[in-house]
Amino acid sequence: MTAKKSFLLIIIISFSTLFSCEDEDLEFVTIKKSMLYNRDISKLNLNRDAVFEIKKGTRVKYPIERPYIVKDITTNGIVIITGAFTYKNIDYTINCADLIPVNTTDTFTPSFISDLNSPNRKTWVPSYYIDVLQSQDPNTVLLFEPYWVQKYNPHLWMHHDGHEPEWYENFLLFFPYYEFVISNSAIIYNEDTRFIIKNISKTANGYNVTVKFVWESWEKHIRDSFNWDIIKDKEYFNMILYVDGDYMDVYIEDMKHKLNTFVQVDQVFLNELKMFIEENTVNLFLK
């Protein structure tokens, strides 16, 4: 074999290995029997629209082209995180709760994962929500998120008559704002900021999670003031979840860059806070 042919063979093998590793990094396995659906979740009926069922232990790949993760409500009232995953070279919608990364070190404990439908469910929300309710003043929100009173925000809506809505109307439009939704295969932060999980590693105080943004154009979907430039050139980066009881500090890449502090609250708390901001009334007495 000539030197030129040997060089070309090495290049071909190197590229094959590279793409093989890339696919492996984005491979997931079902942890129970799972249904495959068409991709449009907003029109999805879980009881009617399944294409077919795959067995526990089935491997699927996260598509490199046209990836997506979304939290939405189906036509039969089920809130669900779904994603596009490839099975036998065809993309389907799969419930993210049914999947874990093939090569993950650990998985989240069941109580840590977001239950989106139980009336007794708890939700990870910014810890300042407690401060707002304890303050007895809805405008306390603006101490933490002053941009709600800005004249222009591309994410906010206007009344049909052209009048600018009150700040709390837009706040409640996204409520609970900056919610942190967790599954073993994906994390959603405030609806539009979405991450696919490569690895979960348990620590003494929580988890280190290796993630990547779902979309290449992720910067267009960021609504917070966090400086995401620290991971701008990285395909994968670390999300550190430091848990202390019902509270959780989330750091990006290292313990110097804190994204937010979250608290796990029940639906009674969220309903009370929403009513408080809407009507400036409160019945829940917090210690």
Strand order of the largest sheet: 9-16-15-14-13-12-11-10
What string, H for helix and E for strand, traces the elements in order?
HEEEEEEEEEHHHEEEEEEEH
The global form is globular
Calculate the terminal CA-CA distance, rounded to whole Å. Answer: 79 Å
What is the count of distinct domains? 2
Number of helices: 5
Oligomeric state of the chains in view: single chain
Q: How would a textbook summarize the main sheet?
A: 8 strands, antiparallel
Share of helix, binned: 10-25%
Radius of gyration: 22 Å
Helix-strand makeup class: alpha+beta
Low-confidence stretches: 4-24
Total beta strand runs: 16
The average pLDDT value, as a whole number, equals 81
Beta-sheet strand percentage? 25-35%
Describe the protein:
It is a single chain. By secondary structure, this protein is of the alpha+beta class. It folds into two domains: 26-101, SH3 type barrels (Roll), CATH 2.30.30; 110-279, no CATH class. The chain has helices at residues 3-25, 128-135, 141-144, 167-173, 267-279, and strands spanning 27-30, 34-37, 50-54, 59-61, 69-73, 79-87, 90-95, 99-101, 122-126, 180-182, 186-189, 193-203, 206-213, 237-244, 247-252, 258-266. Strands 9-16-15-14-13-12-11-10 form an eight-stranded antiparallel sheet. The protein has a three-stranded antiparallel sheet with strand order 4-1-8. Strands 5-6-7 form a three-stranded antiparallel sheet, with no helix packed on it. It starts with a helix and ends in an 8-residue tail after the last helix.
